[in-house]
């Protein structure tokens, strides 16, 4: 009986640590995606634990997971820092996206609910109308909506490994998105491209959807590479 209780206590403790680690992962991702941490900035395990009200064990688990996803880099003797994405990294990631995102969309198009497509359409139409009225929309808001749209498509991908791999890739390019959404010309073109993608989803047109995704990813690559050259 004592052994059984010990096993149950251990399992309960493991579940609690896992939930805390998940919460820490989400909190750090949110802070990175909101630009609160800059590339190359150190991330203190102790301070993070204090901010989140957690022990170091789940915080350490979260840091290791974020490092495996490429959002953090662990340097021996220094600890974790926010990963810095090079232009070469970006090119490699977008080359993969160009092939894999249309493939993922092909498996998800039949399963994406109508109400989710409608929700996305309303979001991006509102952005476009606001931009045309001269509204100043936060790059953080636009970047998060960008991630949300692509994640919605991936959520219904029927290939689990492909879905998880692409979500990691998209997280890694977030720092570039945050910069790009500050520019008016990027915002106008990308919002229109997102609406094109949404209209293809609405029509359940696989070939048009794949073409719209490829055009969108290639535009992203050209825009960033041209601005890096400048």
How do the helices and strands line up, and which of them pair or pack?
Layout: H1 2-33, E1 42-43, H2 45-52, H3 56-68, E2 72-75, E3 79-82, H4 87-108, H5 114-132, H6 139-155, H7 160-172, H8 174-180, H9 184-203, H10 206-229
Antiparallel strand pairs: 1-3, 2-3
Helix pairs in contact: 1-3, 2-3, 4-7, 4-10, 5-6, 5-9, 6-7, 6-8, 9-10
**CATH H-level name of the largest domain... which superfamily?**
GntR ligand-binding domain-like
Given as residue ranges, the uncertain stretches (5+ residues, pLDDT < 50) are none
Structural class call reads: mainly alpha
Pattern of helices and strands: HEHHEEHHHHHHH
State the oligomer.
single chain
Fraction of helical residues: over 70%
Order of strands across the biggest sheet? 1-3-2
Number of helices: 10
Q: How big a fraction of the residues is strand?
A: under 5%
Shape: globular
Taking the alpha carbons of the first and last residues, their distance comes to 71 Å
Tally of structural domains: 2
Could you please say which CATH topology of the largest domain applies here? Four Helix Bundle (Hemerythrin (Met), subunit A)
Q: Specify the CATH architecture of the largest domain.
A: Up-down Bundle
- Overall mean pLDDT stands at 89
Q: What is the CATH C-level name of the largest domain?
A: Mainly Alpha
DSSP strand count: 3
């Amino acid at each position: 009986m004592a052994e059984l209780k010990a096993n149950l206590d251990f399992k309960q403790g493991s579940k609690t640590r896992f939930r805390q680690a998940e919460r820490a992962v989400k909190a750090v991702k949110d802070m990175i995606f909101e630009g609160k941490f800059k590339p190359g900035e150190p991330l203190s395990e102790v301070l993070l634990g204090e901010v989140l009200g957690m022990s170091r064990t789940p915080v350490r688990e979260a840091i290791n997971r974020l490092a495996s996803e490429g959002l953090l880099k662990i340097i021996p003797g220094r600890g974790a820092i926010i990963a810095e994405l090079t232009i070469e990294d970006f090119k490699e990631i977008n080359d993969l996206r160009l092939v894999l995102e249309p493939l993922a969309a092909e498996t998800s198009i039949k399963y994406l609910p109508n109400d989710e497509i409608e929700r996305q359409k309303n979001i991006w139409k509102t952005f476009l109308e606001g931009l045309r009225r001269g509204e100043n929309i936060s790059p953080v808001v636009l970047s998060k909506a960008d991630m949300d749209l692509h994640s919605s498509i991936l959520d219904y991908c029927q290939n689990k490994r492909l879905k998880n791999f692409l979500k990691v890739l998209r997280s890694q390019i977030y720092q570039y998105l945050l910069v790009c959404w500050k520019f008016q010309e990027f915002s106008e073109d990308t919002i229109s491209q997102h609406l094109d993608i949404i209209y293809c989803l609405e029509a359940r047109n696989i070939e048009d959807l794949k073409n719209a995704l490829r055009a969108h990813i290639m535009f992203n690559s050209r825009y960033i590479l041209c601005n890096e050259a400048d």
